[in-house]
Amino acid sequence: MLNKRRLLLIDSSDSARTILYKQISDAMPELDIIACATGKEAMTAIRRFEFQIITTGMSLPDMDGYKVIEFVRQSDKNRDTAIFVVSGDTETKIMHADSDDSNAVTAYFDKAEGHKALVNFILSFLGKNTSTPIRVVYVDKSPTSTAITCAALHKNEIQFDHFKEADEALNYIENDIAANGKCSIDLVITDLMLSNHKTGFDLIRTIRNDLMLDYLKLPVLLMTIEPGEDESTDFTGIFGAGTNDFITKPINEDDLMQRIQTLVYIKRQNEALNN
């Protein structure tokens, strides 16, 4: 499950920090944003909190940006945090004798593109795209399970298409790819027990192997029944088929929404870095 997500903005410009803080918080009020003007302030925050994204320029009042980045990569809480370097020089590369720049920095952003573009980039990375709703393909033949899950998706304003059979869902995904030149669906939710012709495992394997959509391009959440007292969860089968995550039935709405948020975050994060 996701803990409270945080963003660290490091910028010596008071006006730039204020604009970024306001625009991001307006679009994503649930995000905890900490804004710092100096490297020293940023290091204090990095020691105390875990962040999903840290943005920094290279010229800070008290130190250069690389020292902050080096500090992040050596910290316990944030060694794997995404770091965006905001620079006026798109060719900027941070070099150090003991560090690989490609590992130290997640992405470079040209400040000439403006604050709005940076805000959109950050929101896309975090899985928040205000212009594009979450799109889900939901596959389940059980009337009871379908009623519960569809009600939860409707309630949380998630756009979805429901299918009872794997082949119907696969045809829909294939048509989406043909129409858009890529997979525009954010997530597949599928029950394990579909039909004798194709199970949930078969659906997932086809997505991964035939449609060539990996864990990042199209995440899959598998729905299974709770194992009995003398049974155990088939983790090998679940993850061996190519599932990102699984959830047991009966579905808990809060649990379902948290898992959807996590998996859509994975999809949108990958798109933000590769588009």
Task: Describe the structure in brief.
The chain has 2 domains: 6-125, Response regulator (Rossmann fold, 3-Layer(aba) Sandwich); 135-274, Rossmann fold.
Can you tell me about this structure?
- This protein is an alpha/beta fold and 275 residues long.
- The chain folds into two domains: 6-125, Response regulator (Rossmann fold), CATH 3.40.50; 135-274, Response regulator (Rossmann fold, 3-Layer(aba) Sandwich).
- Helices cover 42% and strands 18% of the residues.
- The chain has ten helices and ten strands.
- The protein has helices spanning 14-27, 39-48, 65-74, 101-104, 115-125, 143-155, 166-180, 200-209, 235-240, 253-274; strands at residues 6-10, 32-36, 53-56, 82-87, 107-110, 135-139, 159-163, 187-191, 220-225, 245-249.
- The strands form two sheets. It has a five-stranded parallel sheet with strand order 2-1-3-4-5, with helices on both faces. Strands 7-6-8-9-10 form a five-stranded parallel sheet, with helices on both faces.
- β1, α1 (14-27) and β2 (32-36) form a beta-alpha-beta unit.
- The longest helix is centred in the C-terminal third of the chain and has 22 residues, at 253-274.
- The radius of gyration is 21 Å and the shape is elongated.
- The two termini are 27 Å apart.
- 32% of the residues are buried.
